[in-house]
Amino acid sequence: MRATRTVSLTILHVGAVALWSACGTTPEPPPAPPAPPVPPPADVDGAALCQVVAEVEDAAEQGRLREAHDRFEAAGAGDRAKRFGALLAVVNEQERFRGFREDGEMHPASALAPLGQCFVYADWKMEDQASGVCLTADTALRGAPIVDVARARLKRKQGALDAASALVDNALTRDGSCVAAQLEAARVHAARGDADKAMAAWERARAAWPACFLCAVEAARLADASPDRTRAIPLWEAALAITPGSPVALKQYAAALASSEPGKALAAYQRAVEAGADDLPTLLGGAQLAAATGDVVAGLAFAEKAAALQKNEIDAWRLVLALAQRRNDAAQGDPARAAGAAREVLRLVDEDVPALLVLARQARAAGGLVEAVVRYDAAARAIAAGRVAGVEPADLEAAKKEHAALLAELHVAAVAAKGKPETVVRQVQGAVQQLFLERLKKKRGLAGALDVAVVVSAAGTVDSVEIVSDSVGDAAVAASVVANLRRATITGGAKRYSFTMELK
Description:
Elements: H1 2-23, H2 46-61, H3 65-74, H4 80-88, H5 93-106, H6 112-123, H7 127-140, H8 145-158, H9 161-174, H10 179-191, H11 195-208, H12 213-224, H13 232-242, H14 247-257, H15 262-274, H16 280-293, H17 296-309, H18 314-329, H19 335-348, H20 353-365, H21 369-384, H22 393-409, E1 418-419, H23 421-442, E2 448-456, E3 462-470, H24 475-486, E4 489-490, E5 495-503
Parallel strand pairs: 1-4
Antiparallel strand pairs: 2-3, 2-5
């Protein structure tokens, strides 16, 4: 019996050990999850997209987006990078977005549509809408730097320049030859106000893509804004070597040359206008440069185009007037052009001395003595007030002498008439009678009457004198009446007086 119990215990002991051993065994690890599917190869090359985006931006700078669209479109449907360029170069933003969306419907697995929408949303500064499509594009293109270029554009346009800088740096780290990333880097530096870094970035882009018109232009603009503007000249020349007829480059090139090579600058202005740069600053710049270099004919052509473009641009009319006078000085004769410009100047400014003197001198030479008196009087008021900008001192002295001689010739009293209306009329008639008697020696049978209307201010000064009718018919007599009355002071308050002055 004891042996039997021993065996039984031994069995139980062994069973317990077996049970303990079973409880302490490490379980098998669960099977590893299946690897995510490898995305299919991108249907468009990331490096090619860098170049295409740069080309579209370059076309936009030149105003040639439609040409770029047609060029990419003609490359054929088989080149997806060119297809992207054709859609990105669509001028209308809404149509551009619609084009990318429709391409995505036809090619749902393609990276083209999400990347295009990423760029469009970046331009529209719509970050919420951009984030999903940009991520989809990034996945489909396996981290191609062009996606970060679009993201950097969005951040730059939002003013988040630190984020934009980090994104564009990441793009260049992935592919330093990506021209689109280099363009965006330059723009981010410029937005930060770092002209030196921006210039370096534009130069790197020029080195990577020598045909980049945009790169040369932006580098030239930075140089234009620097203290040494001559640095811009070779850059504008580089831009013109790429696109010889660019009106934008031509006019900026001319402006940069103006101080150092005026002859060359004037030729560039003329080429710019011929190419279509007919904006006011270009036309005025050309006119001013031509005037400074003595090319009166070219200066008049520029100035008259500027005046025709903007009828109320007084600087343009003043240039026409000044250059027309110089033609007169050269005995080439252009009084009509000078007079027309002078009247336009006076339409805009009441008392412009050069314009008044032109009309006064022309009127006196033509026998229009009433107009001559009025113009010389107005010029004298402006000179006394110091409004003589642009008038040579010698011309001012000449004008004063001419005015004094005319008043003496017309027997204008040294002491102006003053008093009641009838007193003033009697004093004026006495002065005019002296001239009338002199004129009788030259014109036998001179006689008649002048009906005159005078408007007087509350202070008694004469605001205007009008010869209503004149049966005397002598310009000097009429001018003497006007000149004497204009200087009179008539008491009695603001009124209009009419009277008849008989001379015989």
